[in-house]
Design brief:
Layout lengths: L1 H23 L6 H23 L9 H24 L3 H12 L7 H9 L6 H22 L7 H5 L6 H15 L5 H11 L2 H12 L12 H26 L5 H10 L6 H9 L3 H26 L1
Helix pairs in contact: 1-5, 1-10, 2-8, 2-9, 2-10, 2-13, 3-4, 3-11, 3-12, 4-6, 4-11, 4-14, 6-8, 11-12, 11-14, 12-14, 13-14
Amino acid sequence: MQGVLTGFAVIAVVIGVGYLIGRRGHLGENGREVLTKLAFHVASPALLFTTLARADLSVIFSSRLLVTAMSTAVAAGIFVAVGAGRHWGVGRTTIGALCSSYVNSGNLGIPIAVYVLGDASLVAPVLLFQLVGVTPVALTILDMSGEGEKGPLRRRLLAPLRNPIAVGSLAGVAVSAAGLRIPGPVLDPLTLIGNMSVPAVLLAFGISLCGSTMPGRGPDRHLVLLSVALKSVGQPLVAWTLAAGVFGLHGARLLDVVVTSALPAAQNLFTYASSYAVGERLARDSILLSTVASVPVLVVVAAVLG
């Protein structure tokens, strides 16, 4: 229980600092854009590369990953189906599907895994699946739905190779799979740069809250409410059902899967939305509301299954 509250408190403080920076105008009018570009093009690729280059890829072959993949597909699939029926557009539907299923396994998942589950490595399958599987696919769709859609087929097929997030992730996996050991003088600068990623994302998110209206309102309110409902309630319920009913998980293993599935939408989704200039309000409101809603959900999950 304490771990849940601690994880949220850390994030809330950094977002609050970003809000104050925005209110006082310390970074100027383009402060949020600069932080977003820094995170997307430099810090996040470095963080993903250094994380995955040292990861044990054997964790991907587990029942926990199957539950994660299936619950992610169900939550995202429901949003995509509704979005297609309502003609919400490829870009906004993609961002909404991510907000419905892409959990905050890094800056929130790690502290909660430490304090609630007792092992930070338990979020590794989710982290790897999202970075290696979900992120390249989603960003490729966003690439192809924008300028790339009008370009030649070769340009569209090579879209993942032009995306810094996807490149960093896939390069890290390649290094780990090959068993290569990166020398300290090479890895240390990348680690230092990567450490800017989470603070930059959270600060940019806090700045974006300045002057904004209450979340869950405006033209995207239906998309926001659907994504929050799927992320906060739908995905953990699907994960619980699959883990217990299909894969026979129980005890600590069941708790691990449900807790990671109940984590809120990741802050870096706002970075993706901002970088592609699509669904920014949708991403910001979904992240904020799902973060608030996940507190009681995680408390209940920890109390029932813990």
